[in-house]
Each structure stands twice: as structure tokens, then as C-alpha cells.
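2024-03-11 09:14:02 DEBUG pipeline.ingest accepted 1 chain
2024-03-11 09:14:02 DEBUG pipeline.ingest length=468
2024-03-11 09:14:03 DEBUG pipeline.predict start
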Amino acid sequence: MIALSLAEIAEVVGGQTYDIPDPAVQVTGPVVRDSREAGPGSLFVAFAGERVDGHDFASAVVEAGAVAVLGTRPVGVPAIVVDDVQTALGALARHVVRRLGATLVALTGSAGKTSTKDLIAQVLQRKAPTVFTPGSLNNEIGLPLTALSATEETRFLVLEMGARGIGHIRYLTGLTPPKVGLVLNVGSAHIGEFGGREQIAQAKGELVEALPEDGTAILNADDPYVRAMASRTKAKVLLFGESDEADVSAENVRLTDTGQPAFRLHTPSGASDVTMRLYGEHHVSNALAAAAVAHELGMSADEIAVALSEAGSLSRWRMEVTERPDGVTVVNDAYNANPESMRAALRALAAMGKGRRTWAVLGQMAELGDEALAEHDAVGRLAVRLNVSKLVAVGGREAAWLQLGAYNEGSWGEESVHVSDAQAAVDLLRSELRPGDVVLVKASRSVGLESVAQALLETGAEGEVSAR
């Protein structure tokens, strides 16, 4: 964080100081909520949860070097006490962002946010110091913590914004007002909570409404819900996608033999060739979104193309590809799932598995409401149409719908199987996998299928695989 005195922080958050001998002492380290991350110069934010109360760690964090605690009660060590810690954290982030000379880039969408954010960060880092959201910490706590990690040297601040209802993104943009706003898509993720795509579009569009007149809205020209958001902002609009209207587009899109996308990037400043390290054609749209941001911030087509070609995955369990010593390839995409990302992952699996046997180990896609049965059925059917060799549906009712969709699609569906849990899937795979097979593991985060991928990698390290 930029250096601030405890007195200044107390004024910004409207707090009272307790047990602080010298209010002029500065916070020069990070702002953290995990006591294990506290160190010299840090500020510890004490949240009281259902099972753990951060205030109980006050003495430990100060011993570790923290300058003070931001909490809701005195704790016997230097502290700034406020009525509501989350509100205070947001106020502090807003103050720091105003002090920074950085350009703030915010992005949202139903699918691909984290992968696109990682691409944007890796591209912009080529131009100037960049701070960005780690993983998917895109809510009312994670976002201000990310903003507070910026320093005087930071020139670009890239923030992912999530939403589970109307008004959430409006709140986040109030904490960290963006200059560039990117909307990727409006899909089915959390549709059960929102009630429909129109409501999702209303929530995501709050990002472009927050942009200043001298800002830029970067919109997906191929998504009608997103394209329509141009009417909700006075900022400049830049379009990306396959549409003829797109300012940033891709030509000659193809997949390499290993399933990695290649294309010719077109921007208003020129064109250049890209071959990505990431897997799956869906990353082309993510790359175009990142390219549009980079173009708007002054990078040339050649600079963008080189950066995109060298960018990797920065976040765990998102199309994480590992080849075992025996030649089995494990694709761990188990961080989360919705219908759009599930279809993209299956298409990537099909592309990667040309000439090889492919397995789709799939689980529930959560929060789909009344569309859950139809969407799970459709994913099962798609696996058949893509000629995925074997489907392993893991879990309860939703997994049964996946398996039933595959079975009803055609005779191949007889190759699908429904198992009760992750361990049953591991047992099946350990007995059936052959050298050269490709295994995709994907489900909503709550299912925890990353344990399947981990078990398969541990098995490969031990050399236990069927050679049938």
C-alpha cells in the first residue's frame, strides 16, 4: 500500500484510535485479513466470522510486525476501531485509489473473467507496473484488498468485479471508479439467483454506467446483451469479437495439434499473429478482450501479440494441463463451471484428444435454477456430439442428468457412467486409464472435483496405470 499514517487512516475510515503511542507511525506494508500474511509494516483487518474472529489474532499479528489492527473493538494492541470493518476497508481503498496516478481497468462477465483478467495483467505488465486481482477475489472484500496492494509505482490497476445481484457492481465501482470498463458476456452463471439473462445484463451493465465521459467501455460485439450496453454509457465504446462491427478482431482462427489457439489479431493500429500457450478456442475471445484493453492503453498490435503469445495461466485449476510420466494428460478445470465454460472445456478436450482417447469427468453446474435440468442434459449431449470417448458424471441428481443426456443422444451414450462421488471416479479412472488418454475434470467449485485431478497426478507419479 502507499504509505499512510495511522492518524490519516483513522480519519479516512472514521475510526477511533486505541493503544497507539504514536499516530504518525505509517503503514508501509500490505493490508491483510489473514493473520498468517501479517508482516512488518502491515495493517491487519479483523473480520469476525461464524467460526473464526480475527480480533483473536491481534497480538499475534502485531508480534509479526503489523503496525495496527482495523477492527470493531479495542484489542489491547494498536488498533483503529470502527463500526463496520467492511465499510471501513472500502473507504480506505477509495482513498488510496484517488491518491494513485494509476489507470483503473475493471472487468466483469458471466464467464472467463479470471482468465481474461490474467491475460490483461500479463499484457499490461509489458508496458508498466501493474497490480491485478489475485485469483477470483472479486467481491466487496477481495476487491478493496487488491486495490490497497497498489504502490506509488503502480500505473495500471486491473480489477475483476463479480456480482450476485443488482447493485453489487455499482457498489464495487463506487469503491474503485474505473477509467476503462470491460464486459465479456452475459451467460447462465448464477441465473438461478438473478432470475434471467435480462437481470444479469442489468447487473453487469452497472460497470459501463460508472465510467466517466473520458473513459472507455470495451464491449463484446458478439453478445447482444453486452452490445446493447453501449446505450448505457457516455464513454467511448470499443468493440471486440467476430462481428463486422468489431474494432478488435481475429482472422484465420485455428487450433494447433495440441489444442492451443492461433489467429491473426487485428486492432485499429495494425495486425499481428498470435499463437497462445493456453488451451481451447474460447480463449480467442478472452485474448481479443485483453487486446482491446491494451490497444486503448497505448500498446501496438505487435506488442500485444507477443504478450498474448507468451501469456500463461496465473490462476489454479483453470484448464491446468499436466502430462503424467505415462503419457496420460490431466486437464484440471475444476475451479468452477457454468454452461458456457463447460461447453468451451469440452470443445478444448475434443481438440486436444485428436487420435487419443478422451475422458470428461464432470459434475454439477450450480445456481442454474429452473434451467438446471435442461443445461445438464445439453452438456451430456454435447459430449456425445464431440465424440468424447467416455463421460464420467460425478455426484447426485445433476450428474444423473448429465449421464442421461449423453445416453439419450445416441449409442455412444452407453459409454457414459454415473458415479456417486469423487473417490468413486478416481477408483474407476485408476482401473481404466491407458497411456496417452486425455482426462478433463470440471464442475462447480462446491463439488470439489480438483481432488480427482490431484489423485490422478499422484497416481501417475507412482506409475500406477493400466496398460490395457
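2024-03-11 09:14:41 DEBUG pipeline.report The first strand starts at residue 4 and ends at 5.
2024-03-11 09:14:41 DEBUG pipeline.predict end
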